[in-house]
Every structure is written in C-alpha cells, then in structure tokens.
Amino acid sequence: MKVAIVNGPNINMQGFREEKYYGTMTYDQLVHGVKDYAKTNKITMTWFQSNHEGELIDFLQGCKDKAYDGIIINAAAYSHTSIALLDTLLALNLPTIEVHLSDINNRENYRKVSYLRHACFALYHGEGILSYFKALNELKRKIEDDSDSTENLK
Fold first, then answer.
1. What gap in Å lies between CA 41 and CA 37, rounded to an integer?
2. What residues have CB less than 8 Å from 12, skipping those under 6 apart?
3. Model pTM?
4. Catalytic option among 68, 78, 100, 115
5. pLDDT at residue number 153
6. How far apart are CA 49 and CA 26, in angstroms?
7. pLDDT tens string 57-114
C-alpha cells in the first residue's frame, strides 16, 4: 500500500507555535514518528509539506501518475479556504482522509468549516500525532476492504 501524506502551511513550524493547540512535538519528531509508524504497519509513505497552495496542488496532481492508493491531508489553514485543493482531491478520486493536529471544533468558528471534507471519507483531529496514526490505520483498512470487494467481483 502506497500513501501520500500531504501537509500545508506552518506544519513545518511544529514545536515553535501555539503550544496550547499544537503541543511541543517538533516537525522532525512528527515526520519521523509518522514514518516509523507507517513502516511498522507495512505502509509505504511519501511525506510532502509546503507553505504554498500551488505546490500542494502540483504534488497532489502527481499522485495519480505515481499510483498512490490513498492520501492523508493536513492542509492546515487551506482546509478552510481552498476550493482549488478540494477540486484537485475530487479529480483524483482517491480515498482521502483529512487530519488536523489541533481540535478544530474547539477553536475559532472559521476553523470548523472545511472545504476539503467534501472529498474525504474520514476526519481525525485534536490528537496530535495520534491523528495521523488513526488516519493511517483507517486508510489501510479502507484500501484493504475495497481490494477484497474487488476480488470478490472477479
């Protein structure tokens, strides 16, 4: 199973920003923790982070050509503003899960709205790195279940 994990603006600032929302885990700790978890669970993973919306879109568009089985996206603030990212995810038609480190339901009202949610089958938020672990587990389950369903049709 091959998964793309896509992260938006300021995720690279982990460990330096708003501790009450994001905790003290650094960006490097987040990246290594998620990569180790994926490897332990036999998931091939590509990690991508950008502070630029166009770069996120370009990376996502390339996911189709590179035969990813699914996507986990933490578009950060772009989750609440980017119809362009939503359109990209809808065009890809890959199983996608939205992730946030903070509890977006207990933050500002504008963070409770996510355009990306319309292209995602699940959302995990408010549990820091555990949100990524849960998303990896759920994505793996869905991909394996969908694969089993396809096998039964043959």
1. 6
2. 27, 49, 51
3. 0.91
4. 100
5. 46
6. 14
7. 999 999 988 889 999 999 999 999 999 999 999 999 999 999 999 888 888 888 888 9
Rounded distance between C-alpha atoms, residue 115 and residue 69, angstroms? 22
As a whole number of Å, the end-to-end CA separation of the chain is 21
β partners of residue 2: 44
The helix or strand, by DSSP H or E, that contains position 58, with its residue range, turns out to be: helix 53-65
Active site residue 100: yes
Residue 94 DSSP one-character state: -
User: To which H or E segment does residue 134 belong?
Assistant: helix 129-153
User: What domains appear along the chain, each with residue ranges and CATH number?
Assistant: 2-153 (3.40.50.9100)
Instruction: Give the Cα separation of 154 and 150 in Å (integer).
Output: 7
